């Protein structure tokens, strides 16, 4: 009777070890898949500037999607509109609840929200949108998908 229980106990121990190893591997895989933290603001602004320059110079209909699409713009929340415009250049478009248009200077009128296109002109693609607060800061900076 004892000889029958020992193999069962060994089998149980092996199953326990395999289960623990499996759980450990799953935990490591989940940690590796976790999104990277947002870049520091200055580094993000530099990368966005480079992408924006590349995309505005690219005129090909087969232009690839912007590599900036993978960047998390949340570290820009709270940035002043003037600082964002200084890094990216004038906005592509100014939007309000009932109006919109191209900026006439380095920034949009105070009552309109600026957005910068990160795709070829006249095509669909990503745009960086600044939801402006009353102090002319971007309360929320996020990617939006344009469809023309």
Describe it for me?
- 39% of the residues lie in helices and 18% in strands.
- With 148 residues, the chain is an alpha+beta fold.
- The protein has two domains: 1-34; 41-146, no CATH class.
- The protein has a five-stranded antiparallel sheet.
- A hairpin with a 7-residue loop joins strand 3 (113-117) and strand 4 (125-132).
Helix content: 25-40%
Structural class: alpha+beta
Task: Give the averaged pLDDT, no decimals.
Answer: 82
Q: Please count the beta strands (DSSP E, at least 2 residues each).
A: 5
Query: Count of DSSP helices?
Result: 3
Q: Kindly report how far apart the N and C termini lie.
A: 78 Å
Kindly provide the radius of gyration, computed on alpha-carbon positions and rounded to a whole number of angstroms.
Answer: 25 Å
Poorly predicted regions are none
Task: Please give the largest β-sheet.
Answer: 5 strands, antiparallel
**Element order, helices and strands?**
HHHEEEEE
- β-strand percent reads 15-25%
Described by the principal axes of the CA atoms, the overall outline is elongated
- Oligomeric nature of the chains: single chain
Strand order of the largest sheet: 2-1-3-4-5
Q: Number of folding domains?
A: 2
List keywords for this structure.
single chain, 148 residues, alpha+beta, 2 domains, 5-stranded antiparallel sheet, 3 helices, 5 strands, elongated
Topology:
Blueprint lengths: L1 H32 L7 H17 L23 H8 L4 E3 L4 E2 L11 E5 L7 E8 L5 E9 L2
Antiparallel strand pairs: 1-2, 1-3, 3-4, 4-5
Task: Summarize, please.
This protein folds into two domains: 1-34; 41-146, no CATH class.
